[in-house]
């Protein structure tokens, strides 16, 4: 948006890079690329690395603005940590910075996951590779449950008391049922939950009684998230207009593009919601993958650096080789760039918009329910008794001991290799 007025975002805001410093694009490419290489562990690791770079080491962005950037990008569908990487680069060098920084953040993980896809999805991989894939895939259902457990408390607090809490429970159950039963129509359930909550809360506001407190905007008034003079005063829409579900009916690359677009534009609540959004399409509807291969794809998305949404690249590779993987990644990440490029200057107003807040209050629990519901078909997809033993150990590690996801998946892969070399049957 900076290019519309000739102003650079880096010139605005106390504590940013605007105190006379123009950050070179080569430096952005190097630093964001380094985070893309080292960002194992998902969004928490990405946010930590971005904060250390932009706030602590370089002082490019004020701490309060960085925190508000986290909150604003978490309001958007798609991979929030990727959008934060794009936003922080935009904050330094406008559109050019966003494109360079976002690409540098995404590409290392994309290259690695495509290489691993070639290894794991080839026609006749070595037995130990099959064992590692089967072991890591065995733990995925436990990872889905762990992701749910971390999302429930903040969503429940956000919902409010009384009837709002009951609606939260209903949305949660609807999302879980949709993940198990509705397959590719899950997106409609998520949208319906958000729309229903907008209607309920609008009715409550017009009824006699106390007026609900307005949504929180920026914590500090001295460091706004964007320039107020950049572009017209409008709120970034949450939904991409003009989605064309007809792509799904065309099959081939058109269907793949539609699946990737759902992942990139309509995945609310974190990276793991891509599982119920993709599973039915990839396995049941288009038969690009087997159940076991889909589990492998999810595991690869978790253990490689960069955003978890990279999982869609594995699905693309299974559907149409390297071209399919690149197409799926391009379609899935394009909404994130568009949301930031056209909306970053308006993030404060986005966060203050009542309809946006209400939509997310309804869609959020439906997403959490969908993630929880996805654990059932993931567990049922396991084909060998020893895999359920690995699943039990993964559940103990993640849910009882509360340890990390990446060590869990690597350990499960190691158990799979052990199963393969000792002669146990593989899926």
A few lines on this structure:
This protein is mainly alpha-helical and 427 residues long. It is built from 18 helices and no strands.
Structure overview:
The N terminus is likely disordered. By secondary structure, the protein is mainly α. The protein is globular and about 65 Å long. The protein has 2 domains: 107 residues, no CATH class; 312 residues, no CATH class. It has 18 helices and no strands.
**Share of residues in strands:** under 5%
Please compute the radius of gyration using only Cα atoms.
21 Å
The total of beta strands comes to 0
Indicate how many domains the architecture comprises: 2
Helix/strand/pairing category: mainly alpha
List the helices and strands and how they pair.
Elements: H1 2-5, H2 25-38, H3 43-57, H4 63-74, H5 80-120, H6 127-138, H7 140-159, H8 163-181, H9 186-206, H10 247-250, H11 252-266, H12 274-285, H13 291-303, H14 311-343, H15 347-352, H16 354-380, H17 385-400, H18 405-421
Helix pairs in contact: 2-3, 2-5, 3-5, 4-5, 5-13, 5-14, 6-13, 6-18, 7-16, 7-17, 8-9, 8-16, 9-16, 11-12, 11-14, 13-14, 17-18
Transmembrane segments: 98-121, 128-148, 168-193, 236-261, 314-347, 359-379, 385-401, 408-426
Membrane topology: Multi-pass membrane protein
InterPro entries: Chr_Tranpt_l_chain (IPR014047), CHR_Transporter (IPR052518), Chromate_transpt (IPR003370)
């Amino acid at each position: 948006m900076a290019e519309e007025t000739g102003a650079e975002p880096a010139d605005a805001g106390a504590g940013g890079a605007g105190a006379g410093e123009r950050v070179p694009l080569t430096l952005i490419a190097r630093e964001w690329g380094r985070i893309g290489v080292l960002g194992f562990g998902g969004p928490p690791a990405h946010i930590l690395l971005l904060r250390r770079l932009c706030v602590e080491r370089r002082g490019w962005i004020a701490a309060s603005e960085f925190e508000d950037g986290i909150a604003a990008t978490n309001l958007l569908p798609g991979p929030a940590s990727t959008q934060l990487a794009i936003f922080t680069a935009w904050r330094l060098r406008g559109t050019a910075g966003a494109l360079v920084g976002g690409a540098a953040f995404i590409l290392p993980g994309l290259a690695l996951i495509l290489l691993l896809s070639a290894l794991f999805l080839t026609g006749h991989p070595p037995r130990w590779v099959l064992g590692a894939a089967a072991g890591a895939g065995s733990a995925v259902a436990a990872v889905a449950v762990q992701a749910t457990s971390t999302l429930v408390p903040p969503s429940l607090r956000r919902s409010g008391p009384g009837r709002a809490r009951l609606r939260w429970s209903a949305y949660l159950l609807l999302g879980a049922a949709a993940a198990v039963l509705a397959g590719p129509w899950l997106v409609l359930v998520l949208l319906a939950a958000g729309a229903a909550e907008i209607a309920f809360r609008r009715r409550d506001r017009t009824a006699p009684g106390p007026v609900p407190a307005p949504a929180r905007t920026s914590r500090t008034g001295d460091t706004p998230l964007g320039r107020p003079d950049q572009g017209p005063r409008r709120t970034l829409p949450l939904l991409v207009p003009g989605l064309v579900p007809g792509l799904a009916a065309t099959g081939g690359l058109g269907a793949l593009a539609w699946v990737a677009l759902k992942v990139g534009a309509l995945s609310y609540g974190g990276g793991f919601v891509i599982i119920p959004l993709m599973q039915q399409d990839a396995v049941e509807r288009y038969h690009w993958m087997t159940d076991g291969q889909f589990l492998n794809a999810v595991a690869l998305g978790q253990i490689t650096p960069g955003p978890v949404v990279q999982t869609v690249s594995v699905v693309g590779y299974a559907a149409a080789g390297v071209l399919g993987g690149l197409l799926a990644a391009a379609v899935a990440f394009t909404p994130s760039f568009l949301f930031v490029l056209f909306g970053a200057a308006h993030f404060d107003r986005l966060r203050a918009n009542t309809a946006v807040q209400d939509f997310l209050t309804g869609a959020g629990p439906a997403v959490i329910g969908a993630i929880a519901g996805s654990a059932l078909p993931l567990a049922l997809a396991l084909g060998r008794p020893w895999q359920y033993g690995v699943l039990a150990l993964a559940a103990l590690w993640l849910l009882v001991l509360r340890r990390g996801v990446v060590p869990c998946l690597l350990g499960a892969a190691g158990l799979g290799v052990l199963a393969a070399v000792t002669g146990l049957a593989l899926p």
